[in-house]
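Why should sequence recovery work at all? Because a backbone constrains its sequence more than one might expect. Tight turns favour small or flexible residues, buried strands favour hydrophobic ones, and helices have their own preferences. The token representation captures these environments compactly. In the example below, the structure is given first.
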């Protein structure tokens, strides 16, 4: 079933975000209608040049018109879970966004260089601003991306489409059904074993590649500062910049080794502010010295590890360019990112329809972002206005042709490079080998912050409780405990209580023997249970690893990567 959330609530279209889900998605209302006719695409594509990616990119760019070039720097989203056949609700959304019915028509009309796959989930820090879901399961995503690439092959230059998504795992995950779910970044930080992180992220990359996704806007390279930073939270590997740097590099090596470009975000760092760039312009008040020590290392290590993409953040880093969002700051996107970090890949903006980027009309914002040093513009609120603004900038000289050509050359080089690796078969998705690799990372992440470090954490009948919106996680743990030999009953047993993202002290259970936090562990400071455990995510493999610890069949080797008041990083 194709899922469209409020496609006709058009104001939401203007508030979309590039930045997910820990538990399975909540049921969505759907709009069904007779399918719209497939697009009519150009019949004769330009022949693709051969050779190494940079040579092919240069040749392709040389043959492109200004309109072709302007389209290549655009990466919008689209409504519809199929490239050429969509329901009427999706067609209405696409008409509002781009004046077309289908994603394939959007590619053909604007000569797009990329498309981002999006997903609405209520339980994630960015869910309220995602307008639609066009990902359902690996088979559907592969069919969608095959159709999108077929449309792109008809464009001048013969370049494949850059297809991206935010598959961070943890609370921001676009494809949740049928894939091997990694723990959150904070879970990997708790494990503290970069080799396990690399293996898990290589598995993730192989699954993304099999689905036809060429860029993953992950890992999050932000070093976490104040606990009030809920928009980043467990999306970060932790609060230690040096430890984060090792984890980020490992995740990058895993993704890139699988043929998927890794996208570091949110440069220059979203961890040291409690503001949310989905709502306004967060201010980062660190000094240059503090930024260099706390935020720079993970980005530098990710760049050095070969990340193909860096995503800019809509952040006011006052020590460098006060009052200017980093996305529009040449001092940050060119002088620091290109000059200091020596990044040669593709710089992609965070969503251009987030409030800090909508300070200017779409065309003017596009030119400003390109002039700052960005190469690709993510999710412009109006595709035609963004493209026309770029063309107008070329005409009046406010955007130099050399800058646009440089941006497109980088984009095409990356696209030709990722296309060199043979696409895996869908059979790799959720394979036993991948579950083993990811399960090892999950097992290493489980952290006991209070309680015994050896033996079973409980005996006798067990009752698992949680708030009502965590039923998927609760049932998953019940089954995992049963597999470990526990008798689990609806009431009257020794209580294990689950809490997660967004929960508050009122969601804790004073009578629980064990309280388990499935997100950032800060809430455990207020829990009264004699045993406190952090899993940092609610994935099946995380809760399976937890059950083994509860049964005394595995140790809890994790160490909290953030400080929790009144508790040690580990009790073991």
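From this structural description, the recovered sequence reads:
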């Amino acid at each position: 079933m194709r899922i469209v959330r409020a496609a006709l609530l058009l104001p939401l279209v203007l508030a979309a975000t590039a930045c997910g889900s820990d538990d399975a998605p909540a049921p969505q209302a759907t709009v069904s209608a007779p399918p719209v006719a497939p697009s009519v695409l150009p019949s004769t594509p330009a022949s693709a040049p051969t050779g190494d990616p940079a040579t092919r990119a240069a040749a392709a760019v040389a043959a492109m018109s200004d309109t072709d070039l302007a389209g290549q720097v655009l990466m919008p989203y689209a409504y519809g879970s199929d490239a050429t056949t969509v329901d009427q609700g999706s067609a209405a959304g696409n008409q509002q966004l781009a004046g077309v019915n289908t994603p394939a028509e959007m590619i053909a009309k604007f000569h797009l260089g990329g498309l981002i796959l999006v997903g609405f989930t209520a339980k994630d820090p960015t869910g309220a601003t995602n307008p639609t879901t066009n990902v359902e399961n690996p088979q559907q995503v592969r069919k969608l991306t095959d159709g999108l690439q077929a449309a792109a092959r008809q464009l001048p230059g013969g370049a494949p489409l850059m297809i991206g998504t935010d598959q961070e795992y943890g609370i921001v995950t676009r494809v949740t059904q049928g894939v091997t779910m990694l723990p959150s970044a904070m879970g990997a930080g708790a494990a503290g074993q970069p080799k396990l992180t690399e293996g898990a992220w290589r598995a993730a990359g192989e699954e993304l590649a099999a689905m036809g996704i060429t860029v993953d806007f992950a890992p999050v390279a932000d070093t976490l500062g104040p606990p009030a930073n809920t928009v980043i939270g467990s999306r970060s590997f932790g609060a230690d910049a040096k430890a984060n740097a090792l984890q980020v590099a490992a995740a990058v090596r895993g993704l890139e080794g699988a043929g998927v470009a890794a996208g570091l975000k949110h440069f220059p760092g979203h961890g040291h502010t409690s503001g949310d760039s989905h709502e306004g312009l967060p201010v980062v008040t660190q000094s240059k010295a503090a930024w260099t020590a706390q935020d720079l290392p993970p980005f530098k290590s990710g760049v050095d590890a070969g990340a193909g993409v860096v995503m800019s953040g809509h952040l006011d880093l006052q020590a460098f360019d006060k009052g200017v969002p980093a996305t529009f700051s040449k001092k940050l996107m060119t002088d620091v990112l290109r000059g200091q970090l020596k990044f040669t890949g593709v710089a992609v903006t965070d969503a251009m329809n987030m409030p800090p980027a909508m300070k200017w009309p779409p065309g003017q914002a596009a030119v400003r972002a390109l002039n700052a040093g960005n190469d690709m513009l993510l999710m412009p609120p109006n595709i035609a206005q963004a493209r026309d603004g770029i063309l107008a900038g070329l005409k009046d000289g406010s955007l130099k042709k050399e800058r646009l050509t440089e941006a497109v050359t980088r984009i095409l080089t990356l696209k030709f490079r990722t296309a060199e690796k043979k696409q895996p078969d869908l059979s790799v998705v959720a394979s036993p080998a991948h579950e083993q690799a990811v399960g090892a990372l999950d097992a290493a992440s489980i952290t006991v912050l209070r309680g015994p470090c050896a033996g079973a954490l409980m005996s006798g009948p067990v009752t698992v409780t949680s708030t009502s919106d965590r039923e998927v996680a609760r049932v998953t743990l019940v089954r995992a405990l049963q597999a470990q030999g526990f008798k689990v009953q609806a009431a009257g047993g020794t209580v294990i209580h689950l809490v997660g993202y967004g929960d508050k002290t009122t969601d804790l259970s004073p009578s629980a023997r064990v309280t388990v936090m499935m997100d950032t562990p800060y809430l455990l400071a207020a829990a009264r249970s004699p045993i406190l455990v952090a899993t940092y995510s609610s994935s099946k493999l995380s809760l399976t690893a937890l059950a083994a610890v509860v049964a005394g069949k595995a140790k809890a080797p994790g160490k909290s990567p953030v400080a929790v008041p009144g508790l040690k990083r580990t009790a073991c």
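A few observations help interpret the result. Confidence is low (pLDDT under 50) at residues 1-48.
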